[in-house]
Predict the 3D structure of the following.
Amino acid sequence: MLKENMYKLYQMPNVVMGTQLNLRRNLINHRFRKSACTSELNDIKEKVLNAALELDVFKGGTVFSMENCDFDAIEMFLEKGFIDEEFKESGFGVILVSRNRKITLVINGEDHISLFINGQDDDIFESWETLSDIDDELEKRLGFSFGPKYGYHCSKISNAGTGFTVTYFLHIPMLTAEAEDEDLDFFCEQYKLSIENSIRDSSGISDYSKIENEQKIGISEDEIIVRMETAAVQISERERFLREKVIQKKSIVVEDGIKRACAVLKNAKLITFHETERHLSFLRLGIEAGIVKGLSLKKADSIFSRSTPAYIQNRIFAADPIEEDKFRAEQIQKQLPENIKYEEM
Amino acid sequence: MLCQRCKKRPASVHMAEYINGQQREVHFCEKCVQETLSEALNQGSLSEMMGKLIGSVSQSDGEDEQNKTPEAEKTYECPVCGETYSGFFKNTLLGCPEDYFVFNNSINDVLSNSEIENPVHSGKLPSKSLEDTVNENIRQTLNIRIEKALENEDYESAAQIRDRLRSL
Ligand SMILES: [Zn+2]
Ligand SMILES: [Zn+2]
């Protein structure tokens, strides 16, 4: 591998693919989903929805009611982690998405209120302020259950306190390779966070992961943000270091992965989401290392998000999964630039 | 929170009492309130009975802490949602906000076991005034924060917190 490429890899960590902030709240004098009766759930639904629709941020937004929501939309919400299976079954769940699509309000999930804000290269502190402002406005209208010791009461004990979760979506293939599990344990302990992997390839090289703060009480929202940002930087640096090491030692594996990825994505007639994910992971690695030219990281990530089962199912109604895989392959080839090239390592 | 009369059942009725202009909170279970009320209807005036009910608390104040062990909480049932200790312990999912008071010590144990040294809320506070008890705690928290801000010579924050205190 060229020294120049190595330098670029070091300069372009680009490990962070996106972020998500989540804030949970519950109405005063109302039971949680586990114990609430149907009239209570209906009551909560109406109160929260009416309050939220008064806010500027949700004006012109879209309301998805679980009673009459189409299947594909529900699948998308499930995939994004906004809702759980129980929510899907319940007739009292409502989702409100802001017009700019960045903010999502989930009503009657595990908690009465769950606010999400998703971003890519946004300032997390600014996003938190946005969430906090919405929280203030809703609180004025609804009143939230709060106690001096356990802070904001949540359905799950582990969410009590701030009810605040910061998630980083990371591309850390080297770090999640099985040999490096010790590193991950260290980060989990050091920053009190959890790491979840979306896929683990047999080569152990391609992987998308997310990290989340486990601690929500005894720590302020600002401290959570700082802690998670520090963790993300530390993890990125470790990932960079390992990439250099791995690319040097196993360059043939990496080169094979990248070339295979280009070939398959360009020519496949059928492709599953899992396969797409793995190949795009290699392409990302190649882009970051400066080996793959003509394709930006943004573009690679957009191809990724347009390959998910939810996205595909939103566009075609196929009873046969082969139809889906065919459609996915066609979509990828439409989006992949013509002039995509790779340099010899 | 345990009923201050029988010290067995969780308190679900919260009342304020005034002694020499000072307000104090008292907490009873529904059964105790009902018993007292039916006695009052049979025998004397309501205010007399309420006086007795609250008086019974004053006499036995201080014994509270002993009964509030996680062990004792294993036999409780939440009066609002019916949640039991074994129920919430299974998946740490609670039935209603009141459970945070009913199973106070057990929840503290669960959080401490997950390596959180001091599981006491230290983040954002609600802006709207809630119940008086909560307000009192917010006041205390804000006072501590003012002291800290002054210690750090952060006068701007101190002034902001002071405004917040005044608005409560
Ligand atoms: Zn009692
Ligand atoms: Zn309860």
Observations:
- Residues 85 and 324 of chain A are 23 Å apart (CA to CA).
- Chain A touches chain B at residues 26, 28-32, 34-35, 110, 132, 135-136, 139-140, 143-153, 155-158, 160-162, 164, 192, 214-215, 217-221 (CB under 8 Å).
